[in-house]
Amino acid sequence: MWTIFRSLSNASAKILATFFMVMVLIMIGVLFVPSLFNGVNDFANYLANLDMVRNPDIGEQGVAVTRVFINESSIFGIVMTLIARIFVEIIWWCSGQLWAMVNPPEDSAA
Q1: pLDDT tens digits, one per residue of 10-67
Q2: 95 Ramachandran zone, left/alpha/beta (phi>0; psi -120 to 50)
Q3: What interhelical angle do 34-48 and 72-102 show, nearest 10?
Q4: How many angstroms separate the CA atoms of 88 and 16, rounded?
Q5: What is the per-residue DSSP string for 62-88?
């Protein structure tokens, strides 16, 4: 039971960390690396303007819904969230490695 609670706690912490990492990456991107930030934005625009995204082979209502929900802003948000999640996972893994280094198992300490 504790394992379930621990995994839910880790997942919640990672989701919260990803949220703040997106905000930090956007601020850093705008302030220090505007060309890279604009590149991510251009990539989102490119994806949003692909013909299969803008005019999917579904009914008229489906096309309207797709155009409302799949736009440059939502794709930019998804791309930024994925980039932030990569950073969060790397930080999480490095923290685990550091923890294991300074807290070795009891068997190898003797």
Answers
A1: 788 888 899 999 999 999 989 999 998 899 889 988 988 888 877 778 888 888 888 7
A2: alpha
A3: 130
A4: 10
A5: HHHHHHHHSSHHHHHHHHHHHHHHHHH
- Distance from CA of residue 18 to its chain's centroid? 6
Sketch the domain layout of the chain as residue ranges.
Answer: 20-101
**3-state class (DSSP) for residue 53:** helix
Tokens 């930024």 belong to 80
Structure tokens at 103: 């807290």
AA identity, residue 16: L
How many CB atoms neighbour CB 18 within 10 A?
Answer: 20
Q: Which residue has the tokens 């690396």?
A: 33
What residue type is assigned to position 65 of the chain? V
For tokens 């096309």, name the residue.
63
- Asked if residue 25 lies in contact with residue 83, where contact means CB atoms within 8 angstroms, the answer is yes
Angstrom distance (rounded) from CA 61 to CA 57: 11
Residue range 73-100: mean pLDDT, rounded: 91
